[in-house]
Design a protein that fits this description.
homotetramer; 195 residues; alpha/beta; Rossmann fold; globular
Chain lengths: 195, 195, 195, 195
């Protein structure tokens, strides 16, 4: 078993990119059941916040972080350096094309799909080892719906899903204000053990 | 029975002030059971969005809109003009002092209390007619807690409360994104019929 | 303009059927912009709670309440009697077949579709007058997704949508517990004014 | 660093007791920053679900699980046996009295306070080592409010808080229904490093 670092959001270098918030990162990684030594593919890695924590959890494993924006890849590198993480390989490109030639994986995380979710899920299925985990984060109705349709129709996969809405409490003087974060849906799938 | 206008948020003139959003406005006004002819006191009226809809509902009644910022009073006036509402009287001042000399009321709405909630609730109780309604909107833990403590301890009042969290669906191209709004708690109280 | 009654949930006769809760009923009806005199078609009327409040709002109009279960139709009749509402006609049957021979309508409410949403929306479009409103309540990912797809692709319709999650505050002794209700998505559409 | 097990809810033996759900358990434990070897005090341990996962995380440490109901203590023992966890000591009794004679701790978790929150927080402060973590789960307005008041006034503590609302997606045939869980507020505090 390996730990979830739970790094606070503000410690990541993020430019002006959207970033998966701490609570959702934590739940995504625990539902991905990351083990030390795991090979993890992070698709739509963005700032790399999820990749960094995954790499810390799988310290003897490796994270392949696919990101289609150059500024994203730079943020991943900057964060990897800041947190002294050496087992991340940023890959500039768009999935599923950028997934070609990748090794088989224990975990695939999908944070962004650029409208190619069906191809990416199909490609992830091919790369996933038996017993491997596929975890999709959805922030749109379409991704939520399509992720459920696609994964529930894959033979041998066990699928569970939940929506998480976090309200941070913001202290302003003696007041404690409820401050909403956008809800994120987490679709967590486990591939069957037999080929 | 009178209608709830349900004016869209973007139709109000609001400057850069925070504003109660449409869904919360609607629920607040229906829970206040506003009837035509009602005298309504709106405390912490802000942009006047709640006051405007209340005034439209109680067209033969009157809304007294207490607001401590001059810019707020100006927004209330501008919105009253825009929606051709003549039965609103903006009152520049802070409650509870600004509640002195007000007539007895059918409804008191509390949207902001400036840390004086206990005095305002006590003063509202004195102004409310038998059977009158007191509805408090809370966006902080302290206001929620104190509103419940204060109102539940007032003899003869029936109190109910709920929290409302709205996620607007934002259309961006073919995507429909979940977009969180801060939760608001609505504490709705009805004074007993007997003096 | 007409009022939203906002009847408390416990006042409806409901047997053991699920029922749209008060806050969602209120928002649905206000977003449907029901006016007195309106012809309203309520599809999947269930206990009739939405139909009853719509009928009270449109007192000189009429509500046609389609419900495919006999027990549902009986609940609608029982509630109509309890609230002395005479302008509701319960129709036993499944939409869209049960929508044949209905008059043109100002408002169509869809609370349940039995897997026939596309046909029901298409049929609703034919029945709706110019400027008419179509409001869909969704409690599943599929209905939310399909309702957005279908309505956003209908020429001349303006579509907005939001999710509403209510947490009732339950008083137990001196404690005030947060008590979740299932979220409901409201898809509100307005047909263009021109044919 | 140590892992968060993330045991599914249905694997715990729970009788008919309420239980902290998986997602909230995970976030509570990560925010408590449990390290292997930690001494952890779990107050209001209930079924022991939080204690079990904490004990697995701190395998060379120890969890002291205070629970005032005999049936609760029996559930903790049954779950400890089921998950082969040997580093939990259930303590039958009510806090703060049951906290007497306990060793100093790295982490105190408060899941239930029986109306004695102020005394329990004060007692936790005395037991916590410098740098130790105090994490309170609140399901009522009063606990949320009081936890914030108490912890924010303790010199040298850093306090953060958030509310978490999870909607599980329930698969019924081809439908995916949103199914609400009650929101839980997590107040996470870290004691200053210096005595």
């Amino acid at each position: 078993m390996v730990s979830v670092p739970g790094i606070p959001d503000e410690e990541f270098i993020r430019g002006n990119r959207p970033m998966t918030k701490q609570e959702v990162r934590i739940l995504t990684l625990v539902k991905a059941a990351i083990a030390d030594g795991d090979i993890i593919i992070d698709i739509g890695a963005g700032t790399g916040s999820l990749s960094i924590e995954a790499a810390l959890m799988a310290s003897r494993g490796k994270v392949l972080a696919i990101e289609r924006e150059v500024t994203g890849v730079e943020l991943i590198k900057a964060n990897a350096e800041k947190f002294s993480v050496e087992n991340i390989t940023p890959i500039l490109g768009a999935a599923p094309e950028a997934m070609e030639n990748l090794p088989t994986a224990d975990v695939v995380l999908i944070g962004g799909s650029g409208g190619r979710l069906a191809d990416i899920v199909s490609c992830s299925d091919k790369l996933l080892k038996p017993g491997g985990r596929l975890v999709i984060n959805a922030v749109t109705v379409e991704t939520l719906h399509n992720a459920l349709q696609l994964t529930r129709s894959m033979p041998g996969y066990r699928v569970e899903a939940c929506g998480v809405q976090v309200n941070r409490i913001h202290f302003a003087g003696s007041s404690s204000m409820f401050q909403a974060q956008n809800p994120v849906y987490i679709i967590a799938c486990q591939k069957g053990d037999k080929e």
